[in-house]
Design a protein that fits this description.
Strands 5-6-7-8-9 form a five-stranded antiparallel sheet, with no helix packed on it. The chain is α+β, with helices and mostly antiparallel strands. A hairpin with a 5-residue loop joins β7 and β8. It folds into three domains: 90 residues, no CATH class; 33 residues, no CATH class; 40 residues, no CATH class. The longest helix is centred in the middle third of the chain and has 52 residues. The protein contains four helices and nine strands; from the N terminus they run ααααβββββββββ.
Amino acid sequence: MAVTPINAASATAPNWLKEAQESLVAAANPGGLLGTLQDSRGRVGTIKSFLRQSQNAAAGLALVSQGAANSVFEFTMKLASEAVNKRVTERLEANLAYNKKQTNYTPPQQLDRFIYFNDGGSVDTENNIWTKADGTQIDTLTGQKYIEPGTIMQLANGSYLDTKNNILTLADGTRIDTVTHLVITT
């Protein structure tokens, strides 16, 4: 019977006696192909024993191969799961950063509804109408004289009548006072 040497690291372990006994048993009963060959040597002419040992060795190798395949599959699934979790976390953090409320935000101050001037004029900032001190109204967006839409009567030829001020404006731009029938020049 051959004695296998015990390595130095195992000899310092608290259960070194148990490890030494297991090592002696393993040396006396070798497994795998060497064990199969030694078993067939002891029995002359027994191929049956050799084939049984070969079949057991093949089953053992298949089990090891299956375990390795399972380990690779589990490792791959773990990496895929970690990658998906990382992407989900990154997207969640990006969405949270996008929707984060500003803490020191002061909204811009809006204009007053009306701005009054020293000469008596005013500006209506919601309707964009500048009213001069003499009552003339100007559209602040176009710079044209403002005429209240409810007081306008559109005529078929492009002319219109300002019923508030009694002024007829012809399609060519001529303005006529409807009370005096005089042409208004400015």
